[in-house]
């Protein structure tokens, strides 16, 4: 992990958590590097963007989306990562 000490602690924690995340729906983050002006992430190749995947979904199921959002919120909270309020 090539991070230096210039990033805020919360950002470093988020990057480290992303590196540990192993799920079929999460693009793996292999490493991150920072220079004076930029932060670079090395991630697995994802053949699609989120918009394309959403557009390809055949049907939208609100109950499933709500369950997944709650699961994501619980995971972020458990790992002490900041997140926007999810109602």
TrEMBL record:
This is Protein kinase domain-containing protein. Residues 9-67 form the Protein kinase domain. One of its GO terms (molecular function) is protein kinase activity.
